[in-house]
Design a protein that fits this description.
Blueprint (H helix, E strand, L loop, with lengths): L4 H8 L5 H23 L2 H8 L3 H7 L3 H26 L11 H15 L1 H12 L4 H22 L3 H20 L9 H10 L1
Helix pairs in contact: 2-3, 2-5, 2-7, 5-6, 5-7, 5-8, 6-9
Length: 197
């Protein structure tokens, strides 16, 4: 049988393993769900980003909800990995006097919010989707794992850990709105107040 350019192209095309496709779909889902949320994001859009058909997505994920949860878990895992890296690199002997490991992790988190907006917005979408009981349970589990992880890395009092996470949520809201400060007297709040009057 003679080979034609079409058959030759088919035979040289490499098959992508399912694990790689799954990973690529989760990354595409992070981006798409960050912008459209659970209900506003068609699975077909995620599939097209990876170059697969929608039915293939459902061969790897039982439902759109499971793909959303996988993307949310990727988001929390990325934050945990960042905190782990910062804690392992932290040296109190060379750190500025007012910086401890929690402050160093917080500074790195601020940089992540600025450089990876999809991960920030997906966090907001995850909390917004918590009216779904299954998603709520999984988001709670991710959040609890992150708290325990930070406790282990920082070896700080519970009050400091609570403060760290409260401030992190404050940072999330500020970053989502594109502001640096949420204080009552900050410049943009005053400007908005004057515009409303």
């Amino acid at each position: 049988m003679a080979t034609t350019p079409a058959t030759e192209q088919k035979s040289t095309r490499q098959r992508v393993p399912a694990a790689e496709r799954r990973d690529a779909l989760i990354e595409a889902a992070v981006h798409e769900f960050a912008h459209g949320g659970l209900r506003g994001t068609p699975v077909d859009r995620i599939a097209r980003q990876v170059g697969v058909a929608q039915p293939y997505v459902f061969s790897l994920f039982a439902s759109k909800r499971e793909l959303f949860i996988a993307a949310v878990e990727r988001c929390f895992d990325r934050v945990a990995e960042l905190f782990t890296r910062v804690a392992s690199e932290f040296d109190p002997a060379t750190a500025p006097p007012d910086v401890d490991v929690l402050k160093a992790m917080g500074n790195a988190y601020v940089e992540l919010l600025a450089s990876s907006r999809d991960y920030l917005m997906l966090q907001h979408q995850a909390y917004a989707a918590c009216d779904d009981e299954v998603i709520r349970e999984r988001v709670r589990a991710c959040y609890a794992r992150l708290v325990v992880h930070v406790e282990g890395l920082a070896d700080a009092e519970p009050e400091r850990i609570d403060e760290f996470f409260r401030y992190g949520m404050w940072l999330n809201v500020a970053a989502a709105m594109g502001v640096e400060d949420l204080s009552v007297g900050c410049e943009w709040v005053r400007a908005e107040q004057q515009t409303a009057e």
